[in-house]
Amino acid sequence: MTRRARALPLAIAAGAVLLPVLLPHPFVLTIATQAAIWALLAASWDLLSGYTGQISFGHAGFFALGAYAAAAATKHADVSPWLGLLVGATIAAVVGLLTGFPALRLRGHYLALVTLGLAEIIRLVAQNWMALTGGPFGIHDFRSFPGLPAAALAYRQAMYGVVVAIVAASIAVMYLLCERTDAGKAFRAIREDEVLAQTLGINTTRYKLLAFAVSSGFAGLAGGLYAYYVQLVSPSVASAATTSLVIGMAVFGGLGTLWGPVLGALLLYGLYEGLRFVGVVYNLVAVGLVIMVFVIYFPRGLAGIGRSA
Amino acid sequence: MLELEGVRSGYGKLEILQSASLRVPDGAIIGIIGPNGAGKSTLLKTAFGYLPPFAGRIVLDGLPIAGRRPDEIMRLGVGYLAQAGGLFAEMTVHDNLVLGGYTVSRADKRHAIDHVYTRFPLFRDRRRQPAGALSGGEQRLLAIARALIVRPRLLLLDEPSAALAPRFIDEVYATLVALNREGIALLIVEQNVEAILAVAHRVFVLDLGQNAFDGTPAELRASDSIRRLYLGEDAA
Amino acid sequence: MLESLLEFLIQGVVLGGLYALFAVGLSLIFGVLDVINVAHGEFFAIGGYLAFAAVVLLHLPGAMGILGAAVGTFLLGLCVYPLLIAPLKRRLGGRPQGPLYLVLTLGLSTFLQSSLLAIAGGDYLRVPPQVSGILDLGVTAVSFQRLLVLGVAALLLTALFAFLRFHPEGLAVRAVSQNPDAAQAMGINLPRVFAFTLALGVALAGVGGALMAPLFNVYPAVGFPLTIKAFAITILGGMGNPAGALVASFVISIAESLSVMVIPSQWQNLIAFAVMIVMLLIRPRGLFGRAVSR
């Protein structure tokens, strides 16, 4: 990336780090923390769908898997939340890897539909399997990260710090994977022309499965973070609204750039919550509009503005 | 009748045709030949509206048609025969003909289809069969017959001899010549140089997206360089 | 045992009418435009709201509610192709990019659903049944309202298939779905066929919404679960094959209904998705679809 292009994401990163210091208002911290979680989810989606071109309509499912696995582990098996995050991410990654196998043979909208069906199955299981998931009421009453200060504002600041640190580290890992390794080159080759990639000797199977596993794993991690932050996991985390928001964020920010969806998530979530705060119920309307307008007219999203098409 | 001037065209950002010009006088047979990738098919598709031109003029009987949709150009009296897959393979022979008459009245349609069945009895016999069940040559003739239902004044043909056995090539070209005698102008893109040189009034040679040469078949055969480059060493 | 079987069978058939109204329109839209309409369920919801507006707000008879829903969703559907799909098509050129159209219709779905929420609120609106009373068949009882759904579905779908089979414009629609380039060469106006087909498809869902309003109540998200299930049904029947979607609708509805005999009822909805995933794995083209190459 050019120096100018690099300035924006760095500015955002700096802003993220400084926020709890500059604006220690509980509401700001709440929005910022959740925005960070969405940023991780959006980035994970972009790795699979934007970079590798395997458009997934079911990331809400992996998110939910991570959230439920983490919450259940801590509540029923008294697993430490730090470990719980790992549990959530791993389970999501495994399911993602398994999803990758049938995806090898499917393209385009068929792949999108299979992932959508999977997410819907996960949601139905979450809603109906009372014993495991608490049914419509979900899982609650589980502890969050140990060692955080007890005072309300300090707790929020510390939680924000934890979440942002984990999110930033995760995004950095994904970024390195996509931009600095052969795997990243393979991802992009697969997106551009899979048949050509195969003839060039790229093991498309291996890299597709890798993309699925990494993407879903980080989505599950985001789910775990969500679980420990909100301390309630209900079936709605696996809803289509989640998928819709994530896709909207990625399209808004710019597919296939990783930092684009992160920016898109921060801005769109800020807009979404900000409008709600003002009392307007049109927040999701705006998301829908953004998706449509950007898909048609600004395919490269914010990342593409200022750059030639 | 049809005039293309300085046409630039291609797919998306890929420019295939740099600058092509040609004229099809009323009632003439005009051929387009040239090496693969020269832009011959692209030119035909651009003329018929499948591809919007990036630049240049396309004029039909004095009416500018550049950028119009294929169905609009068709209604001006132009027919288009694709190189492959121009028929509705899953539909019956009869339905294909009915679709050929989409733009004309019911009575005209019935009359025209009866005329086709008279001229080509094989289609009457097999009218309930799916068009895809016909042989390659029969499908080519069906496509031509279908295009005639609306009585076009100009037919654009993209490699009418492609993948056909020599016997069928003769039959297709005999039909085309007969149509031309009835007054229909033909613009034919061909890979089979001999077939087109035998019937064309004038031939345009396209290379690398541009005009390379144009003249009567005799002029083409007479020119040594053209002969060697485009007609093959041993072309008579 | 046989009585139970018969009872569930009948209930399944009745449910199949609704599924068919939904899935056939969805499949038709895919077959002709090559677009999967994620927003299909929102037209179902809009149909319900139009019926509510006609019957409860304007005090018109029930039949007007159904008619209003049909006309309203048809007109709204006419806007979708020129405003949304055509511009995307123009930008993409000829390159097939199925998932992007999916994203577009997902955006439309979000927009419509949340617009309904903004305009009408989230309350469950009640609509009186167009017909009341229950038919007692001995083994089971079916409300006349549900029979109306089945009846109207049968009527509309018969008309649709007759149109596609016999009417010259129906032939044109089939031509576009099989070979759009050749269809244009025949003088068929593609944008007009696209817009019309999409409107027709969503109008079927709109009528379904008006008919089901007394049974489901009317709220913004009422159509979405049906949409996802309809994806499963159209995959089973073969994407792009309306007749296949018709058959698959009843296969799924009867399977769901009969399944209650062996699994707890709340797991009914899983059947459709399980079937979809299995189909996508072993035979993506569905029971009756064309071979899937890409």
Short structural description:
By secondary structure, chain A is mainly α. In chain A, 77% of the residues lie in helices and 1% in strands.
What would your notes on this structure say?
The complex is a heterotrimer of chains A (309), B (236) and C (294). Chain A is mainly alpha-helical and 309 residues long. Chain A has helices spanning 3-22, 26-51, 59-77, 81-103, 108-128, 130-133, 152-180, 182-192, 194-199, 204-230, 240-253, 259-278, 283-297, 301-304, and strands at residues 139-140, 232-233. Chain A has a domain at 23-238. In chain A, 77% of the residues lie in helices and 1% in strands. In chain A, helix 4 (81-103) runs antiparallel to helix 10. Chain A starts with a helix and ends in a 5-residue tail after the last helix. The mean pLDDT of chain A is 84. With 236 residues, chain B is of the alpha/beta class. In chain B, strands 6-7-8-3-9-10 form a six-stranded mixed beta sheet, sandwiched between helices. In chain B, strands 2-1-4-5 form a four-stranded antiparallel beta sheet, with helices on one face. Chain C is an all-alpha fold and 294 residues long. Chain C has one domain (2-282): ABC transporter involved in vitamin B12 uptake, BtuC. Chain C is built from eleven helices and two strands. In chain C, strand 1 and strand 2 (141-143) form a beta hairpin. The mean pLDDT of chain C is 88. Chain A binds chain C through residues 49, 55, 57, 102, 105-114, 116-118, 120-121, 124-125, 127-128, 240-241, 243-244, 247-248, 251, 281-285, 287-292, 295-297, 299, and chain C through 36, 84, 87-88, 91, 96-104, 106-115, 117-118, 224, 228, 231-232, 235, 266-267, 269-270, 273-274, 276-277, 280-281, 284, 292, 294.
Structural features:
heterotrimer; A: 309 residues; mainly alpha; two-stranded antiparallel ribbon; 14 helices; 1% strand; B: 236 residues; alpha/beta; Rossmann fold; 2 domains; six-stranded mixed beta sheet; four-stranded antiparallel beta sheet; 10 helices; 10 strands; 38% helix
